[in-house]
Records
---
Amino acid sequence: RAEVVINGSSSPAVVDRSNESIKHNIQPASAKWRHNQTLSLRIRKQILKFLDAEKDISVLKGTLKPGDIIHYIFDRDSTMNVSQNLYDLLPRTSPLKNKHFRTCAIVGNSGVLLNSGCGQEIDTHSFVIRCNLAPVQEYARDVGLKTDLVTMNPSVIQRAFEDLVNATWREKLLQRLHSLNGSILWIPAFMARGGKERVEWVNELILKHRVNVRTAYPSLRLLHAVRGYWLTNKVHIKRPTTGLLMYTLATRFCNQIYLYGFWPFPLDQNQNPVKYHYYDSLKYGYTSQASPHTMPLEFKALKSLHEQGALKLTVGQCD
Ligand code: CTP
């Protein structure tokens, strides 16, 4: 059986640092794009050989107990103890157990969403995934409001909530968490040692204020498994971004997958400037050697999957 060709060639992909957005013209255009069901199913099957989103989306209560020691995935020499709060917030069963959705939206955080008018379209999908607690209320016209799952890297607490230095910032975070209103909050707590306190603060806030969210903490093997899948398909990523992780997980429970806000380039297809994030002033950093991400390379892979009908990328305006 034919292999899924993801990077468009049989030779190992190289990191594309050119940032020339003109090279990334998305074809077929929105109206002509057709979903390829056979290919989507084949990709789901292949990914299942590496991970199972239903299981790997979160560590479950039955598998850990308070006081257990965990080695961080990227800092193997550093450890953390499973706190009582973390244990209390572990789900008993997978939040994705037996879940299947006709269409899913994964919303990345690129500034390409600004003035896209995609909000309404995004909100029509059966399941909407967002990244890193990105704000929605003030940008609803372009990004929508519906949120079924949102990720939160611990660094977000520092970047967007001033490390909760005072009551005002704590209140801001609390309001954002309350607004999630029953959706899944996905916290990669076991990746890097830097996030230890931040994860604890958030856990404490959720418990203390009885915030209505369903917390999930990805399994210890998820990251390597996702990387393994892409490497096997000759996509030579260093560390998968949140966006790519979400796509890889979504293949398990989504029939059709629509991506918005994935555009890791400073210029759009018409050569107009694009902000790195739609909501803040963070600058492009992924080209530095130190950055663990290879976003343009990931984008190339996603573009190839768009061309083959396995997913749909929207990088301009919605109709
Ligand atoms: N993204 C993109 N183009 C951008 C910004 C983000 O394609 N200009 C996608 C990436 O897949 C990214 C996701 O949107 O993972 C969410 O963005 P962000 O919150 O910025 O994630 P990062 O913090 O950059 O990366 P990570 O959380 O994976 O470390």
---
Amino acid sequence: MEFNSELYFITDSTPYELDEFLWRVEDALKGGVTLMQLREKNRTTKEYIELSQAVHEICRKYNVPLIIDDRVDVMLAVDCEGVHLGAEDMPLEMARRLIGPDKILGATAKKVDVAKAAYEAGADYLGVGAIYPTTTKVKTIITSTETLDAICQAVPIPVNAIGGLNASNMDVLKGIDIAGVCAVSAIMKAESPRNAAESMKKKFREIKG
Ligand code: TZP
Ligand code: MG
């Protein structure tokens, strides 16, 4: 499936009531988010499915693919556009077999060898980070911009930078062949998710020249 990962918004519903969460999701889409991920770590399967359905409905209005974090079963149940898997999730080859050739398979990679293996196992894109310290993901390590650059050169699939990124600190990514940037906090927690998304996209396009 075709997708554009220029501005990849990853959600975190934890601090919000459902209405506010969905409002924030839609506001970010109005600001130009090109790819969306629902990332829930403390939900029952039923809750994850219900939230996925609600977010998927909004994403469809804006023609933006929805990726589900961690859970192949939830993605298949909701029939959204893809799933994102890390080292502790289902192996990528198995996931590809279950989801078929047309769904988007995303993977996390912090090292060149992991990136190459993920590509060979069928990943459609990679998320690489954390570029900066982040409070969103516990126990995450920092990936240097040198490693990010090496990964971009090692695989032919889109690579997105992630971790502590916002519109004011993206200059370090200049000259690196990334396809896009990911953000949780910078958009999710912004007073205006729409403005935050707009300015991140504008800044990303500036650094890409
Ligand atoms: N993977 C590496 S860093 C990160 C994930 C999921 C969290 C990014 O969140 P934020 O709030 O944009 O720093
Ligand atoms: Mg995971």
